[in-house]
Design goal:
Blueprint (H helix, E strand, L loop, with lengths): L2 H50 L5 H5 L14 H33 L3 H14 L3 H13 L9 H26 L2 H9 L4 H29 L3 H6 L18 H9 L4 H32 L3
Length: 296
């Protein structure tokens, strides 16, 4: 073996060693970043479970809210109902509009001036603080109806405005990931563009669309500022979203966590644990539905 071949082999081994070292370094950095992100999450879940799980009982989940925060009795039944009503109505408004908007932006408008403008406005709307959105709905809806405007529907309007840009952006990204050859194959068989979108593109992107929608639902379920302005506060069950005040778990947590009374703080921990479990159940159900009906 010549000297040149020795130098070439040594050079290759040196480069390979540096690559292995760089790979190990960046892999370690990734694991460290994951650990740093997981530690606060683990601590949060631990504290909520430890302090909230002990409060759970049938009466706690079904009883009316206590009239006074000093009372040791009372439950969170109205808050659970209010959370479900507001979140469900907001999802019914925001998810279909968001998906249709994303379909237009990705499948029809694309780089047109209208699509570019709508995409820019959606990005701006995603950065609007939630308290501003609540104040906006309070101004255009609650004040218009005077004393009867503080209802669950008003809160759902504010939450829908917060969910809409998240659904649009996540759905558009999922639609971009659908291979173009699927669209071309469908149209080559004689299907129209609308039929291709309904039967090929949307089913292929359904798992990602569901994940983005659930992210928006989780954010809406945990929002406090918009509902403070819009739905009032109710201590009894109210299943009618268009009449009378209501309350949500996030609003209940906000009003009780800062109280100096141990009973109120305990109820806040119990409501926080209930909210986490509720969001987890909704997310798991949506992922199951998406996996069941997605195209493979």
């Amino acid at each position: 073996m010549t000297a040149a071949s020795h130098r070439s082999g040594a050079r290759r081994r040196g480069i390979s060693g540096r690559r292995r070292a760089a790979n190990a370094l960046f892999t370690g950095a990734v694991y460290l970043a994951v650990a740093l992100a997981a530690v606060p999450l683990a601590l949060l879940v631990y504290y909520v479970v430890v302090n909230g799980a002990r409060q759970l009982s049938v009466s706690f989940l079904t009883d009316s809210l206590p009239i006074s925060v000093r009372r040791k009795t009372g439950g969170i039944g109205p808050a659970i109902v209010g959370t479900l009503l507001c979140t469900a109505l907001a999802a019914l408004m925001a998810i279909p509009l968001g998906v249709l908007g994303a379909v237009y932006l990705n499948e029809y408008g694309r780089t047109s001036r209208t699509a570019t403008t709508l995409r820019f406005l959606a990005n701006v709307l995603a950065g609007v603080p939630s308290i501003v959105m609540g104040l906006f709905i309070y101004t255009i809806f609650v004040l218009r109806f005077q004393g009867t405007g503080r209802i669950a529907f008003a809160g759902s309007l504010a939450l829908a405005c917060l969910m809409l840009p998240i659904v649009i952006r996540s759905t558009e990204e999922m639609l971009r990931l659908v291979p173009a050859n699927l669209r071309e194959a469908s149209m080559a068989l004689g299907a129209s563009q609308s039929r291709t979108i309904l039967t090929v593109v949307l089913p292929a992107a359904l798992p990602g669309i569901t994940s983005g929608s659930m992210l928006a639902v989780a954010r809406a379920a945990g929002e406090t500022a918009p509902v403070l302005f819009t739905i009032g506060f109710a201590t009894r069950l109210n299943w009618n979203p268009f009449s009378g005040p209501n309350t949500t778990l996030a609003q209940f947590i906000f009003s009780n966590a800062g109280q100096p009374y141990p009973a109120a703080v305990s109820r806040a921990w119990g409501a926080a644990f209930t909210l986490i479990v509720l969001v987890l159940l909704l997310t798991a159900s949506a992922r199951f539905i998406a996996a069941r009906f997605s195209v493979r």
